[in-house]
Amino acid sequence: MNSSVDPCSDFYEYACGQWIRGHPIPDDAPSVSNFENLGQDLEFALKELLEEKIGREESIDRESAIGKAKFFYKLCLNESEIFDNWRTTFDEVVATFGGWPSLGHRLQENVSIERLYGDMVAKFRADSLFKATVQPDDKNSEKHVLLIDQPALNLFARDFYVLAENEERLAYLQLIRDVLVLLHAPSESATFDAEEIIEFETALANITMADDQRHDIAELYTKMTLGQMEEQLPNFEWQLFFNQVFRDITDKNGTQIAFDEHAEVVIYGVEFLRRLDKLLPQFEKRRVVNYLEWCWFFKTMLRDLPDPFALTIFKFYKTLNLMNVQKVRWHGCVTRINSLMPMATSSIYVRHHFDHEAKKQVEEMISLIMEAFVDLLVSEDWLTAETKEFAKQKVRTMKQKIGYPDYLNDSKSVDHEYRMFRVYDGGYYKTKFQFYEQYQRDVLERIAQPVDRERWVAGAALVNAFYSPNTNEIIFPAGILQPVFYSKDFPSSMNFGGIGVVIGHEITHGFDDRGRLYDNLGNIRQWWDNVTIAKFEKKAECIEKQYSDYMLEQISMKINGRSTKGENIADNGGLKQAYKAYKKYQQSHRPPPRLPGVNLTHDQLFFLNYAQIWCGTMNDKEAVRKLRTSEHSPGPIRVKGPLSNSVDFAKAFNCPEGSPMNPIHKCRVWGRRCGLDFILSTLASRLLPSDMIAPWLIVLCVTLVTVSGRSQTRDLADIQWFDSVASKRDAGYWNDCEFSPMSCLLRRRRSAHRVLQ
């Protein structure tokens, strides 16, 4: 904390100032934050578990899932063995591709891009030309479907390709050239091929859609048969490609899976494929093959190799300012095994690092926060009655997964999941590529299976949380249930301000600009009526404009309010729900004493812990990269935005109206307003604070809206609501409202309306 700063002026500096000054960016990273530190703590915990007894080879049971994970980790650490053996595996794989022209191999006359890329997708999860996978159908969530989407570009942002020459693009060009030379390509041809590769990749980037144009998933969704694709996109043999991907995949009866012209494919952004269909004939096959094989090497081998390759890619990352010194090797090894065998690493992690009492406490919090969101839905006057009922149903049927799947307690079940994974002595890449293929096989085999709603979309050894729209479920892995998000020793205020806001955030994702498109069963369907959609979009537009006006002062760049809109809505909604649930929790629990040495109320601690989650700093290039690529706002904005929209925060810290953290105009998508949109536009500004007696004000408001005859009185629901409250003379009602009668009048002193003359 930096207690010398007024919390009502800059709460981020108040909450994080001292932390930032005490945590310089490490030399092997572009940024440091509380969130990242938690991830590093988890990585270190996995390192210790994977290295346990690793010195005695006989202690590793290479047939068990955990044994395979430990053996792979040991192979990954052995740089000298990798250096001695990598070329053998490399040459074997390149031979299956038919050679790599950049390395002097003759391009086969009958080379098929469809077969080559199909092999890469099947064996290495390639996504360099376009993404091809199997996932639940967004319009029939019980069934798996073939899916195609845009490619994953090697540089971090589309802008790095489509803008004029920049340092990142030039560094990437140099990397390609240097690596080709290290792979024994002639220097002259390496320069030429590197330029051709990046030219094709730039052309590919140019035909992709920017992230902020891809928010309407329903608009992007197109379902076509392979026959229709071959007819409309004739420059790629789609049936050949998919049958190549699935050539070794069988159903549960052992029957080969094959696709004819009637097979259906879901495409996200068919316009991208139309552009790709026009792009491919413009480039000779040699260039496309070189690009595909470069991407394969870059994504599957390069970042694992020791010097001189490690030094070459380090120079590239250093130019991008991602690090000033190379990371210690074990970091990458932990990351790789945790991504390839997530349930194996999760099983040992939760056995040693998960407090099972946390699951019960978090379940109680989820129940309260869901109840709080339902209460917010009930009070929303912009939702029609039918839409409101559907929304309540979606919340109440939302499934929750906390900690880890139960089967991780049974080592035999985990062993069975990884029974087809094989480890090879002295063969790091051979083992890694076999893991890749088995991981992808598991994904591809789902095409013949119904959707398993018990399946976890991620492992438990992860500092993150998720909302899955296909299954309408929220997931909180064990890795996030640790300080600063949660601790059984924290007061409830801090837990609700930490993991509680995360819970609310994920629930709100079911109702943000993307989540609202899915019904309670996980299907894209218009379950909101047009009137409600229009009102939602107006409220969401307020959030978009608010965040678009925020400047990240460090680099003098504004936030992209459009591409971050969904996450910003979730941040604001999550904060509101968690605080409301916390206040309800207080009603049935004895209030804890104040924390010793901390002169803050528990309401203030709620907001402080929320803010301190986002304490962090980053170098300038990382800041630019994140603003261009991330769907999340940077930490300072994740604090300022939601808190400046929160009346609860302003009350907790007694922030004067009009102060930076309590602006007069606030944006809300989800959150009770007590009919204020109408009242604030009609109430007179000449009344004095001394006039403020709550029941009298209610009667006055009803009188004003009834007799004014203004156009705003068309909203009969507001009048009926105020009439009901006025008849009860319930001044205590304001305790649960987002404004006070006092602020109602004071706020409108600048109003152009003059109802009382």
What structural keywords apply?
Collagenase (Catalytic Domain), Neutral endopeptidase, domain 2, 4-stranded mixed sheet, 757 residues, single chain, alpha+beta, 31 helices, 3 domains
The level 1 CATH classification of the largest domain is Alpha Beta
Looking at CATH, the homologous superfamily of the largest domain is Collagenase (Catalytic Domain)
Helix content: 40-55%
SS-based structural class? alpha+beta
What proportion strand? 5-15%
- In CATH terms, what is the fold-level topology of the largest domain? Collagenase (Catalytic Domain)
Count of structural domains: 3
Report low-confidence residues grouped into runs of 5 or more.
673-696, 702-723, 725-757
Name the shape in a single word. globular
Number of helices: 31
- Work out the radius of gyration: 28 Å
Number of strands: 11
Give the integer mean of the pLDDT values.
88
Short structural description:
The chain is of the alpha+beta class.
Write the layout of secondary structure elements.
Blueprint: H1 11-22, E1 31-33, H2 34-51, H3 65-77, H4 79-96, H5 113-124, E2 131-137, E3 140-149, H6 159-162, H7 167-182, H8 187-206, H9 217-220, E4 221-225, H10 226-232, H11 238-245, E5 264-268, H12 270-279, H13 285-300, H14 309-319, H15 329-340, H16 342-353, H17 356-379, H18 385-396, E6 399-403, H19 411-417, H20 428-444, E7 466-468, E8 473-477, H21 492-509, H22 530-548, E9 551-552, E10 557-558, H23 565-587, H24 602-613, E11 616-618, H25 620-629, H26 635-644, H27 647-652, H28 676-679, H29 694-707, H30 716-728, H31 741-747
Parallel strand pairs: 3-5, 6-8
Antiparallel strand pairs: 1-11, 2-3, 4-5, 7-8, 9-10
Helix pairs in contact: 1-24, 2-15, 2-16, 3-15, 5-11, 5-13, 5-20, 7-8, 7-14, 8-13, 15-16, 17-18, 17-21, 17-23, 21-23, 21-24, 23-26, 29-30
